[in-house]
Write a structure and sequence with these properties.
By secondary structure, the protein is an alpha+beta fold. The chain has six domains: about 70 residues, Orthogonal Bundle (Helix Hairpins), CATH 1.10.287.610; about 210 residues, D-amino Acid Aminotransferase, Chain A, domain 1 (2-Layer Sandwich); about 110 residues, OB fold (Dihydrolipoamide Acetyltransferase, E2P) (Beta Barrel); about 70 residues, Orthogonal Bundle (DNA polymerase, domain 1), CATH 1.10.150; about 70 residues, DNA polymerase, domain 1, CATH 1.10.150.20; about 80 residues, Rossmann fold (3-Layer(aba) Sandwich), CATH 3.40.50. Helices cover about 35% and strands about 20% of the residues. The strands form six sheets. It has a five-stranded mixed β-sheet with strand order 2-11-10-3-9. Helix 1 runs antiparallel to helix 2 and helix 12 packs across helix 13. The structure holds 2-(butylsulfanyl)adenosine (IVH). 2-(butylsulfanyl)adenosine (IVH) binds next to strand 3, strand 8 and strand 11.
C-alpha cells in the first residue's frame, strides 16, 4: 500500500468518525437534553470535518452533516397538499374540563360499535401524554429511509414545501436507521429556551435585531427562502405522530413513538403512558411545575417552552371509530393552562452573583398571586433587558409565570409614571468583597473580577458539590454560603478539612446533620479523576473531555505539565481547548490548588491508559448499551466502560465492537444481530465484571455480587 493510500484511508476513517460523533452529539443535545461536550467542542468537530472534506473532496457524501445546506435560494415556496389533513386539537384549560373529556371518551367506548368494551365509568383508559411544544407543526415524508419532503401545516390541507430548510435541522437524522421505511411523520419545530437566549445574545453582540420570542423566531426561520439562514438558527424538532401507524403493525401511540425512536427520529423523551385520569392530572401538574423552572439553573426544568400537554387515547386501533368533531379528533386533547400574567409593582432590583462573578439582575416585586402561586421575584436576565423594557423602580409591570421559565417581566403596564419612580442603580462594587465591578462582555452584565471573592466562592462550592461534578448529595447552596460566611471554607479543598466541632458550632447545625455532611463529603474522596478535572472549572472542559483527559494523562500533574501539542493528541481536544487548559494551569494558584486537592485525598492520579496503567479490556472498542441492566444505571455503566478503554456510543453500526443488551432491548439488539456484532446479556456482563481484572481497583457501590 502506498503511503498516500494509507493517508487517504486514515482521512476516510477520521471523516466517518467525525460524522458519527456529530450525529451522536446532536442527538445528546437536541433530543436527550444531555450534552456531553460544549458548543465549542462541537464546532471543533464540525470544523475539522469541513477541513478534511475540503482537502479530500472525494470523501464528501450527500449524507455528510456539512451537506445539509444544499438547495439554492428559492423565488417562492411550492405548495404541498397533505395526503392526510393536519387538524388542530380541542383544548381543556382546567382539570374539570379534562375529566369531562375522559368521561366522554369512556362513554363513547362503552357504547361503541362493538357493543361496548366495558361498562362506562369502570375502567381507566390508557393515555399517551407528552409536552405540547410551542412551535410550528411540520409534516415530513421519508422514502426508503431517506428524507424527501417537508411541509408546513399551512391551512391544514395545503402547506408550503420547506424541504431544503427542514434538511438543515441538526436533530433530524439524514438517513433513518431502517432503510426500508417509507411514510409520513409529523412534528413540531421549536427553539429551546437557552438556545434562544444565546441566539439573542449573539444578535446583540453583533448589533443585530433581538428576537421577541422563540415561537415566532422558529416560524420565521423555517419560512426562509434561503436555507443557509435557516441553518444558522438553532432549530429543534420533536416528532409526535406517525401517519397511518397501523400500516406498520402498531397498535398504540406509545408503540408508534417507540417505533419512530427506533428509526432514529427525534421523539420527546418526556412522552409517558398514563393509566386513568388521575395519572394524567398528576403528570399535568408535574409539567406545570417543571415548565416554571429555568433550564439554566435546574436540571428538572423543561428545556423549552410548552403551552400544555397533549393527551392521546393510547389505543390507536380505536381512533377511526371514535372519529372527529368539526375541527379536531375526539381521541386527543390539548390540555393547557390558563393565561398566567398579572400586573404588580417593581419594588427593587437586586443582583445575585454566579461562580464566575457575573451579577444577574433580579426584580423584587410587590408579591402577586398568579394562578395560585405567589410571585415576588422575576428574572431580568441582563442589563440590556432592563434597558429594553425601559424600567424604573416603582413602575407597574406585567409579570408572566409559565411557558418559558422563572417568572419574567414582559413589559410596563399602561399606567403613566407619576414622578415618584427612581432609576435602577447598578452596583459599582461587589457586595461580597467590595472589588470594583467590570463589564463582562459575554454575559452583558457587570461582574466581580476577584477570583477569591467569597460570594463567588460559595457558588463555586455549590457547583463543586453538584451532581455532574463531585456529586456530594445534600450539601446545598445554602450550606455552602454558611460555610464560606463562617470562614470555614476558603477554597474547595477546605471542604475535606472540616471537622465535626466546626460544623456543630454553626447555628442550627446539629450532630446528626454534621455527621451526615461529613459522611457525604468523605464519600466523595474516591470520585474518579475525571470528576476532579471537571471540578477545576477549566473553560470548555466538560465531563466528556475530562474523561478523555483523565484516561490519556492519568493525573492532574501530567495534565498540568502537558504542552499544547500533547494536549491535542487527545481525541476531540483541539487548539482552542488545549489553549484553555494551558491558560488555566498558568493562572497563579491553580497548580497549587491541584496539589492541595491531592493532599486532602482526592483522586488526582489514576492508572493511565497507554502507559501500562490500569487494564483496558475494551481498548479501541465501541460499545453500545441498550435495554436496562438491573444493577446499574446507564451512566454508571458508561463511566465504567470508558474507564476500561471503551468508547460508548448510542447507535449500532458495522464498527460497533460490542452490544450490551438488557431486557427491553429492541431495534439496537436486532441490528446488532443482523450485523453480527457480539452481544452480551446481563449474565455475561456480570460474569465478565467478576472475573476479569478491570478498572477501577476500588469497586463502585453498584458493583454486582457473585451469586
Ligand atoms: S399531536 C391533530 N403532539 O399543537 C394534531 N401536537 O393544537 C395532532 N403540538 O398543530 C397533534 N406539540 O403543532 C401533538 N407533542 C405534541 C405537540 C403538538 C405541539 C402542536 C401541533 C398541533 C397543535 C394542536
Amino acid at each position: 500500500m502506498s503511503s498516500s493510500k494509507g493517508g487517504a484511508d486514515k482521512a476516510q476513517a477520521r471523516v466517518e468518525w467525525l460524522r458519527e460523533q456529530i450525529a451522536h452529539h446532536n442527538y445528546r443535545y437536541y433530543v436527550l437534553d444531555s450534552p456531553e461536550i460544549s458548543d465549542a467542542q462541537w464546532d471543533e468537530l464540525y470544523r475539522e470535518l469541513e477541513q478534511l472534506e475540503a482537502s479530500h473532496p472525494e470523501l464528501i457524501t450527500p449524507d455528510s452533516p456539512t451537506q445539509r445546506v444544499g438547495g439554492a435560494v428559492l423565488p417562492q415556496f411550492a405548495q404541498v397538499t397533505h395526503r392526510m389533513p393536519m387538524t388542530s386539537l380541542d383544548n381543556a384549560l382546567t382539570d374539570a374540563e379534562f375529566k369531562a373529556f375522559d368521561e366522554r371518551l369512556r362513554k363513547l367506548l362503552a357504547g361503541g360499535a362493538d357493543g361496548g368494551l366495558f361498562a362506562a365509568g369502570e375502567t381507566a383508559l390508557e393515555y399517551f401524554c407528552e409536552p405540547k411544544l410551542d412551535g410550528l407543526a411540520v409534516s415530513l415524508e421519508f422514502e426508503n429511509g431517506a428524507f424527501v419532503r417537508g411541509a408546513t401545516r399551512g391551512d391544514g390541507s395545503v402547506g408550503e414545501d420547506i424541504t431544503a430548510n427542514i434538511q438543515t435541522l441538526r436533530p433530524l437524522p439524514i438517513r433513518l436507521k431502517d432503510s426500508s421505511f417509507s411514510g409520513t411523520v409529523r412534528g413540531e419545530v421549536f427553539i429551546r429556551t437557552l438556545d434562544f437566549e444565546k441566539l439573542n445574545a449573539a444578535q446583540k453582540a453583533s448589533g443585530g435585531q433581538v428576537y421577541a420570542n422563540p415561537r415566532n423566531t422558529a416560524a420565521g426561520s423555517l419560512r426562509q427562502l434561503d436555507p443557509s439562514i435557516t441553518a444558522s438558527r438553532p432549530l429543534s424538532i420533536f416528532i409526535y405522530a406517525l401517519v397511518d401507524a397501523q400500516r406498520y403493525g402498531l397498535k398504540s401511540q406509545s408503540e408508534s413513538i417507540e417505533f419512530m425512536r427506533g428509526l432514529g427520529l427525534p421523539v420527546n423523551p418526556e412522552g409517558r403512558v398514563c393509566k386513568g385520569a388521575q395519572e394524567v392530572l398528576d403528570y399535568h401538574d408535574e409539567l406545570a411545575r417543571r415548565r416554571s423552572l429555568y433550564p439554566g439553573e435546574d436540571a428538572d426544568a423543561l428545556p423549552y417552552a410548552i403551552d400544555g400537554m397533549v393527551v392521546k387515547y393510547n389505543d390507536l386501533t380505536k381512533w377511526e371509530e371514535l372519529g372527529f368533531t368539526a375541527k379536531a379528533p375526539r381521541f386527543m386533547l390539548a390540555f393547557k393552562w390558563p393565561e398566567q400574567e398579572a400586573s404588580t409593582r417593581l419594588n427593587n432590583v437586586s443582583f445575585s452573583i454566579s461562580r464566575t462573578g457575573v451579577y444577574s439582575p433580579v426584580a423584587e416585586l410587590e408579591p402577586v398571586n398568579i394562578q395560585g402561586v405567589t410571585v415576588a421575584r422575576a428574572t431580568l436576565h441582563n442589563l440590556d433587558e432592563i434597558e429594553r423594557l425601559d424600567l424604573m423602580l416603582g413602575d407597574e409591570v406585567f409579570v408572566k409565570r409559565g411557558g418559558e421559565v422563572i417568572p419574567k417581566i414582559t413589559g410596563r403596564t399602561a399606567r403613566e409614571r407619576d414622578g415618584s419612580e427612581k432609576p435602577i442603580v447598578y452596583p459599582d462594587s461587589c457586595q461580597h468583597c467590595a472589588t470594583t465591578l467590570v463589564i463582562d462582555e459575554r454575559a452583558h452584565n457587570w461582574a466581580c473580577p476577584n477570583r477569591v471573592c467569597p460570594g463567588r466562592l460559595a457558588q463555586r462550592i455549590a457547583y463543586f458539590c453538584s451532581r455532574d461534578v463531585m456529586d456530594i448529595e445534600g450539601l446545598s447552596e445554602r450550606t455552602a454560603v454558611r460555610l464560606v460566611e463562617a470562614g470555614l471554607v476558603k477554597d474547595i479543598d477546605d471542604l475535606y478539612r472540616l471537622t465535626r466541632e466546626q460544623l456543630t458550632a454553626l447555628e442550627k447545625f446539629g450532630d446528626v446533620s454534621a455527621d451526615n455532611t461529613l459522611a457525604v463529603i468523605n464519600g466523595s474522596r474516591s470520585r474518579p479523576l475525571w470528576r476532579v478535572i471537571v471540578a477545576l472549572e477549566i473553560p470548555q472542559v466538560g465531563s466528556q473531555t475530562a474523561k478523555l483527559l483523565a484516561r490519556h494523562f492519568g493525573s492532574l500533574e501530567a495534565l498540568g505539565n502537558a504542552s499544547e501539542e500533547q494536549l491535542m493528541e487527545v481525541y476531540s481536544v483541539g487548539k482552542l481547548i488545549a489553549q484553555e487548559i494551558r491558560a488555566w494551569f498558568e493562572v497563579p494558584g491553580n497548580a497549587e490548588l491541584c496539589r492541595r486537592l491531592g493532599e486532602v485525598g482526592l483522586k488526582v492520579s489514576e492508572a493511565a491508559a497507554g502507559e501500562g496503567g490500569g487494564p483496558q479490556p475494551f481498548a479501541g472498542r465501541t460499545v453500545v448499551l441498550t435495554g436496562t441492566i438491573s444493577f446499574a444505571t446507564r451512566e454508571q455503566l458508561k463511566e465504567w466502560l470508558e474507564l476500561n478503554g471503551a468508547t460508548a456510543s448510542d447507535s449500532v453500526s458495522k464498527k460497533t465492537g460490542l452490544v450490551i443488551a438488557g431486557p427491553g432491548a429492541g431495534s439496537k439488539l436486532a441490528k446488532a444481530e443482523q450485523l453480527g456484532v457480539p452481544v452480551w446479556d446481563e449474565a455475561k456482563l456480570i460474569e465478565f465484571m467478576l472475573s476479569e481484572p478491570s478498572s477501577p481497583e476500588q469497586k463502585p457501590e453498584w458493583w454486582p455480587n457473585a451469586k
